[in-house]
Design goal:
The chain is α+β, with helices and mostly antiparallel strands. It folds into two domains: about 90 residues, Arc Repressor Mutant, subunit A (Orthogonal Bundle), CATH 1.10.10; about 160 residues, GAF domain (Beta-Lactamase, 2-Layer Sandwich). It has ten helices and nine strands. The strands form three sheets. The chain has a five-stranded antiparallel sheet with strand order 5-4-9-8-7, with helices on both faces. A two-stranded parallel sheet has the order 1-6. α1 packs antiparallel against α2, α6 runs antiparallel to α10 and α7 crosses α9. The longest helix has 18 residues. InterPro entries: GAF-like_dom_sf, HTH_MetabolicPath_Reg, Tscrpt_reg_IclR_C, Tscrpt_reg_IclR_N, WH-like_DNA-bd_sf, WH_DNA-bd_sf. It comes from Hypericibacter terrae. This is Transcriptional regulator.
Length: about 260
């Protein structure tokens, strides 16, 4: 049985659409809007109608129809029999290339699987990629009640994730400040740290303890634990997600398993 609770947060599609209107960085507005449409369709469970897309992204009707027509013509979108816009076959090429190019170093996948097996909890490896903190690989837990796996490529809300906080804590001041200055500190739950001052205190504690955790900061009912891989500045983080009910009681045991597995390689 999996646990998955997703508090409301600003969607990736809306973020892209908002950036399309920014005047600061030079950009082709129509291209940014087309990308926002693709993300909106990808985030929807079964596809979207044209007017739903226009309303979601704040686009005019004529602009929306022109962009949809172009994306369908390129094979990036398609129309379902129900009249919904869904991802087209050309997106499979991009998806395959994304997974291939994002591939984690060979030693990480077996390590993540081992930790998932020994803890019984969902485990994953996270790293810096292009200025974002990105999930590279995940393995599901074997316990009867365990967290859902984090999608490969997920990179949002690092301030609310144990792995994200760990990598931010160990990043250089310049990188950390740059990340926090360009990312919204959304409140995922009542426990999410959303002030820079609170996060800096948390980063200091993480550096002292050698691990990071989140106590239902990303999702209610879930707690997470993260440890660095390797010595020196943390390049990768290994994390687990577990139901909050017994998390504190099992914390030391989780740490021993994770650190032992990392030492063993």
């Amino acid at each position: 049985m999996g646990i998955e609770k997703k508090p409301k947060a600003r969607s990736g599609a809306r973020e892209i659409a908002a950036k399309a209107s920014d005047r600061a960085p030079p950009r082709v507005q129509s291209a940014a809007r087309a990308m926002a449409i693709l993300v909106a369709v990808a985030e929807s469970p079964h596809g979207l109608r044209a007017m739903e897309i226009a309303k979601t992204l704040g686009l005019g009707r004529q602009t929306t129809y022109h962009l949809l027509h172009t994306l369908i013509g390129c094979g990036m979108l398609a129309r379902s029999p129900e009249g919904l816009h869904v991802l087209g076959l050309q997106m499979a090429t991009l998806a395959d290339a994304f997974v291939r190019q994002l591939a984690a170093p060979e030693h990480l996948a077996p390590l993540v699987r081992r930790i998932a097996q020994e803890t019984g909890e969902t485990a994953y490896a996270v790293a810096w990629r292009e200025g974002e903190i990105v999930n590279l690989v995940a393995a599901p837990g074997s316990n009867a009640i365990h967290a859902m796996t984090v999608p490969q490529g997920y990179h949002r809300h690092a301030h609310a994730r144990a792995t994200g906080k760990l990598l931010l804590a160990h990043a250089t001041k310049e990188i950390r400040e740059g990340y926090l200055a360009t990312h919204r500190l959304d409140r995922r739950t009542a426990n999410t740290l959303t002030s820079r001052k609170a996060l800096e205190r948390e980063f200091e504690r993480i550096r002292e303890d050698g691990y990071a955790r989140d106590r239902e900061e990303f999702a209610l009912g879930l707690c997470c634990l993260a440890v660095p891989v390797g010595s020196g500045p943390a390049t990768f983080a290994i994390g687990i997600s577990a139901p909050s009910a017994a998390f504190e009681a099992k914390l030391e045991g989780y740490l021993k398993i994770m650190r032992r597995a990392i030492r063993a390689g």
